[in-house]
Amino acid sequence: MKFIAYTVKGIEDIAKDEIKEFFPAANIIELESKAIIFDPKDDDFDRLSRFKTIDDLGIFVYEIVYTRELNHKSLAEEIASINFVKYRELLGKFRSAKPKKFSLTVSLPGLKNLKSNPFKDLLATVIAAEKGWTYTEKDHTNFDIRVFLGDGKIYVSVRLTNESLHKREYKEFSKSGSLRPTIAAALVRLTTGMKHGKLVDNFCGSGTILCEAYNLGNEIYGGDVDAGSVEFTKKNLKSLDFEELDNIKLGDAIKTTYPDNTFDYAISNLPWDKQIEVESFTGLYIDSLREYKRILKDKFVMSLLVKKPELMISLIGSVFENVEVSKIQLSLVGQQPEVITVRSK
To answer: Which of 9, 32, 59, 163 gives 331 a disulfide partner, CB atoms 3.0 to 4.6 angstroms apart?
Structure first.
């Protein structure tokens, strides 16, 4: 059986590696922007539902080559003609769904002649008439049909799980600018290489990075200058049965109380100035780097999600010596921040 995994743009390779880790025999059929089509060779629902870097996972149904001649009506009719009864039966191997009910998740960004919302309304009407099913617009926990635009193709799938995989039970408390858990998990995998160690986040916010790092077996520490963020982090970690809450401290990221050479890894989502006002990116970056240099071991890996990557890279060169620097661009909340990863040689 073929599946399609949906990711944040920029972390596709990390998600692919996670798929291969969970399913070593998996065949990666297509690696697209924000989507991976694969055959795991083993339809183990428990493992399929435990991916951490994948936003959503669906049973792959159909693909349509996108052309300018496609219009709302012809596309809706083509999708409605699919034998979805067959895919209801396949979904039934993994979970139950209310009979004769369906919902839609449609993502067709940037297409002038195919706007997502008008098309979604039309498709709902056509499928309801074709199949005799009831459309549940707001309830996506049933038989959810997803229509997604990839690189020149439109993919149709059916959501495998009741809810999106990016949702986490621990994330009960969050603030503006809170990082999506799947991105946090990708940052942890990228930074640690799945080796366990002492990890710090001096800009912990709501604690998403620390929660994902703890779930992956790391010894975690962190803090934030905002008291509310520290409390949210502690509450989210407590829901994971994390007991060392004194490891999470209220304090300034540029002047922590950690001893020199303490940590193997550092990961932070630095303020972007969209959710949190930043007076000077140069000052924020340079002071943060100096503090991280002090508290990191000689052999370390650090990943920072930043709005101004070229500035960060130039400042890294003035603070650190004998390091390798790489970057990954993400597409996130209408912006394109980059992950800058620094590795000691």
So the answer is: 9
State pTM to two decimals.
0.92
Kind plus residue range of the DSSP H or E element containing 248: strand 248-250
In a 3-state reduction of DSSP, which class is residue 299? Answer: strand
pLDDT at position 172 over 90: no
Q: Which string of DSSP letters, residue by residue, matches 10-56?
A: T-HHHHHHHHHHH-TT-EEEEEETTEEEEE-SS--HHHHTT-SS-SE
Token pair in block for residue 123: 């498709």
In the block, residue with structure tokens 């743009």 = 9
- The one-letter code for the residue type at 99 is P
Least confident of 96-110, 186-200, 244-258: 96-110
The residues, ordered by sequence, that sit 6+ positions from 316 with a Cβ below 8 Å of its Cβ are 289, 323, 325, 340, 342
CATH 3.30.2130.30 is right for the domain spanning 3-159: yes
List, for residues 204-218, the tens digit of each pLDDT value.
999 999 999 999 999
Instruction: Name the CATH architecture for the domain at 181-344.
Output: 3-Layer(aba) Sandwich (3.40)
Domain boundaries, the chain: 3-159, 181-344
DSSP for 129-160 reads: HHH-PEE-SS--SSSEEEEEE-SSEEEEEEES
Burial of 241 (0-12, 13-18, 19+ CB in 10 A): exposed
pLDDT at residue 126, rounded to an integer: 97
